[in-house]
Each structure stands twice: as structure tokens, then as C-alpha cells.
Specification:
- The protein has five helices and seven strands, in the order H-H-E-H-E-H-E-H-E-E-E-E.
- A five-stranded parallel β-sheet has the order 2-3-6-1-7. The chain has a two-stranded antiparallel ribbon with strand order 4-5.
- It starts with a helix and ends in a 12-residue tail after the last strand.
- By secondary structure, it is α/β, with parallel strands linked by helices.
- The model has no long low-confidence stretch (mean pLDDT 86).
């Protein structure tokens, strides 16, 4: 319980360095679900936000990569990279992590359908597209609320986490 990783989770996601808060407990439960039952989809888009850059949002990808393995995680630097036509490299991933999403309000429907769909179409250049069962979890980061997605109070598909920027620049943790 006294590791730097545990401290990172408590402070950045739980907002309390002394205890595991309900919001952090929820995140731990999700990560455990992804590991123990990889074929179960939560049908939620995890949105990690903070107006402050360099406070640990993207570090979660490195942790998930260590837990699940490099082959089951995909990193996208933009929405355009995530939604490429020739997307075969996206197939078979458990975690699809889109970093620093901005100005994606018009792409919200595309993201949401990818979160709740039971199958996905993948295509490789010069090959026929294939449709296979989809089990991935999509995570996005952004520097604005809901990473500029169009979200309403009735939307069940998005879970937003505003992270605590207190560890910004802490080289011991990152």
C-alpha cells in the first residue's frame, strides 16, 4: 500500500493521499474487471480530464500496458488516428487510449457507437474488411471538461474523471 503507484492512484484519481475514495474504488473495480473478465464490455467511455497538462492523465496508459501487456493496448495521438479507414491494427485490443482529444464534439456519435457496439469492422489495405466481436474499452484524455465531447445529463455511456493536478512535475512518480 505504500508504493509510488498506489500513491499515484490515490492522489491523482482519488483526490486523497490517505485513503481509497469511492471514485478510486470504482476505477480499481473497472481495472480488475478488464483483467479478470476481458470479454465483458462496460459499454462506457472513460474520460480523464484536467485543464493542467503533465499531471498524470496519460500515465494510466503505461500502467494498463504493464498490467495487460503491450499487445492488448493501443495508443492514439488523435481522433483522426483512432478512426483511420485502414484500422486492422486496432483489432484485438482491450484498451484503446485516445490522448489529448480536443474539438471532437462532431465525433461523439462515432466514439459512442464504438463503445456500445458488439461487433467492429476492421480493414487492411488491399484486403476485404472483416467483422469480428468487439471487447475493447475506450479511454480518452483531454484538457477540457469531457474532452470536448457532446455530452448530455442523460448519457449513460460516459464516465468522467477530473484528475488531481497536485503531482504535476513530480519526477518520483512519473
Amino acid at each position: 500500500e505504500d508504493t509510488m503507484l498506489y500513491y499515484y492512484f490515490k492522489v491523482v484519481f482519488g483526490w486523497d493521499e490517505n485513503k481509497v475514495t469511492p471514485r478510486l474504488d470504482w476505477l480499481f473495480d473497472m481495472i480488475a474487471l478488464w483483467i479478470q473478465f476481458p470479454r465483458i464490455r462496460t459499454e462506457t467511455l472513460l474520460c480523464i480530464t484536467s485543464e493542467i497538462q503533465g499531471c498524470g492523465k496519460s500515465f494510466l496508459f503505461q500502467i494498463l500496458q504493464a498490467l495487460l501487456g503491450e499487445d492488448l493496448n493501443a495508443w492514439y495521438g488523435s481522433m483522426a488516428e483512432y478512426s483511420e479507414k485502414y484500422n486492422m491494427r486496432n483489432s484485438g485490443k482491450k484498451i484503446k487510449f485516445i490522448d489529448d482529444l480536443a474539438g471532437a464534439a462532431d465525433k461523439t456519435d462515432q466514439l459512442f457507437s464504438g463503445v456500445t457496439g458488439t461487433v467492429a469492422k476492421y480493414e487492411k489495405k488491399y484486403h476485404d474488411a472483416i467483422v469480428i466481436p468487439e471487447y475493447s474499452q475506450t479511454i480518452i484524455t483531454g484538457n477540457t471538461d469531457a474532452a470536448s465531447l457532446h455530452v448530455t445529463d442523460k448519457d449513460r455511456r460516459i464516465v468522467c474523471f477530473e484528475v488531481n493536478p497536485v503531482l504535476k512535475g513530480n519526477k518520483k512518480v512519473f
